[in-house]
Design a protein that fits this description.
It is a single chain. This protein is mainly alpha-helical. It has one domain. The protein is built from nine helices and no strands. Helix 2 runs antiparallel to helix 3, helix 3 runs antiparallel to helix 4 and helix 7 packs antiparallel against helix 8. The longest helix has 31 residues. This is DUF3159 domain-containing protein.
């Protein structure tokens, strides 16, 4: 067994800033919508204003401009959808659909033996796709990826879908916050536990096993 402690999945994937930032503009939308007598236009304006202010703050603090532009674009798109339909709950429609797509994509990645959790962690660790040479890691990443499929994306689809269908705007704002970084943190913790439980005791963890060879790639 390796003498070095295994790295936790939370340590590798980093903090919760991105998920936390993404939950703030929806709160601004609901607040603006309520303050202006359930005006979708005011809610949309408030959400965009909050997103711009948050983006400026993050840039000043050294954040990546490209990531902030993408986040702002998502808020603007959500606001435009709500303005087009005139329904406040449609501000959350883009988020609902993105979670549907994520659930399907993650599930498909497991089926084709390219679990996305392994892809993400491999990129972060600089392993690229070399982790697939380790059958134990491939199996562990596949099992842990199911936690993301059902514990995060499918759960969001069910909650957001029911609230959107019934037009519960305030509840959608609350759910958008609760199911952001708290759920991400829980998903990372649970998937990390599942991942390590699937690995043999002597396995070094998320780093490639020393004896792994390039001709061990499953399905290559």
């Amino acid at each position: 067994m390796s003498g070095e402690p295994r790295e936790s999945l939370a340590q590798i994937l980093g903090g919760r800033r991105g998920a936390l930032d993404a939950s703030i503009p929806p709160v601004g939308f609901v607040a603006g919508w309520l303050a202006a007598g359930q005006s979708v236009a005011w809610g949309a304006g408030a959400a965009i204003a909050v997103a711009v202010a948050l983006g400026i703050y993050r840039i000043v603090r050294g954040g990546k401009v490209r990531a902030l532009v993408v986040s702002l674009a998502a808020v603007v798109a959500a606001a435009l959808i709500a303005l087009h339909t005139g329904r406040a709950q449609d501000f959350f429609l883009l988020q609902l659909m993105s979670n549907v797509a994520s659930a399907l994509l993650w599930a498909a990645s497991i089926v084709v033996r390219w679990p996305l959790l392994g892809v993400v962690v491999g990129l972060v660790l600089g392993q690229k796709t070399r982790w697939r040479r380790d059958p134990a890691l491939l199996k562990a990443y596949s099992r842990a990826s199911w936690v993301w499929v059902f514990g995060q994306y499918t759960l969001r689809v069910v909650v957001y879908g029911l609230l959107w269908w019934s037009g519960q705007v305030i509840a959608l704002g609350v759910a958008r916050t609760v199911l952001s970084w708290p759920l991400v943190a829980l998903t990372v913790a649970v998937s990390g536990w599942v991942l390590y439980r699937a690995l043999p005791p002597e396995h070094p963890g998320l780093r490639l096993a020393p004896e792994t060879r390039s001709d061990d790639v499953p399905g290559a």
